[in-house]
Write a structure and sequence with these properties.
The protein is α+β, with helices and mostly antiparallel strands. It is about 40% helix and about 25% strand. The chain has a six-stranded antiparallel beta sheet with strand order 3-4-2-5-1-6. The chain is elongated.
């Protein structure tokens, strides 16, 4: 501290007062700087801290209908209508020549063509023995069986053997009974189905009108037939 000469005590006071004001300003500046630093640090800390999650604002008084996927109708499938087709079957008959003559007349009248089918049906049943090499043995066996009510005939075969023929039966059960009776006497017996051919003529396919006209002609002529639709 300096004291100005000639000023007395007043000069000293003046100098002291100026020194006090200078230190006060320094302290005030430091305080302001510290406050500003604290504010800055607090702001940085607040910005770095994660805040609570925010919810979207709720819509009040507004109804949102659920989203539905548009439906697409499948394309309509159109199929052409199938025309009715028929097959006409003439027969069956046993005489092929008779069927042929009849078919020629009917088919020519209606302008259609048919095909012949051959079928084999069982007409009857025949009972015979096994083949025997010697005719004398076959005749002796036939006499023994005739004596017990089982008559038979001796028939020669193309290979030189012989069979005992016990007859032809319309009923299969009767044929089997005869064969069992022969076997009960210790001899062989076999049942053979006797098959005979039958013939039919099949025409088609025909439309409904042609098939019905064809069937009407067959019915008027007394020809056995059957009508089948596809």
């Amino acid at each position: 501290m300096t004291v100005s000469p000639g000023k007395g005590t007043f000069g000293v006071r003046t100098v002291v007062a100026r020194g006090d004001r200078s230190s006060s300003r320094s302290r005030l500046g430091v305080a302001l700087w510290a406050t500003a630093a604290l504010v800055l640090v607090a702001g940085l800390w607040a910005s770095a801290r994660p805040g609570p999650p925010t919810k979207p604002p709720a819509v009040v008084g507004q109804h949102v209908p659920p989203q539905t996927r548009p439906t697409v109708a499948p394309p309509a499938l159109t199929e052409p209508a199938l025309a009715r087709a028929y097959w006409v079957r003439l027969g069956p008959v046993a005489d092929l020549q008779q069927l042929g003559n009849l078919a020629d007349r009917v088919l020519e009248r209606h302008g259609v063509v048919g095909r012949v089918q051959t079928e084999w049906t069982v007409r009857s049943f025949r009972v015979t023995s096994a083949a025997l090499r010697a005719r004398r043995a076959a005749e002796e066996r036939c006499r023994l069986l005739a004596a017990v009510g089982l008559p038979c005939d001796v028939r020669a075969q193309p290979d030189g053997s012989y069979l005992l023929d016990f007859g032809e039966f319309r009923d299969g059960a009767a044929a089997r009974r005869t064969a069992r009776a022969v076997r009960a006497r210790g001899y062989s017996a076999v049942v053979h189905p006797v098959r005979t051919p039958s013939y039919a003529v099949v025409v088609g396919p025909l439309d409904e009108r042609a098939a019905l006209a064809f069937a009407r002609t067959l019915h008027e002529g007394g020809v056995p037939f059957s009508l089948t639709r596809r």
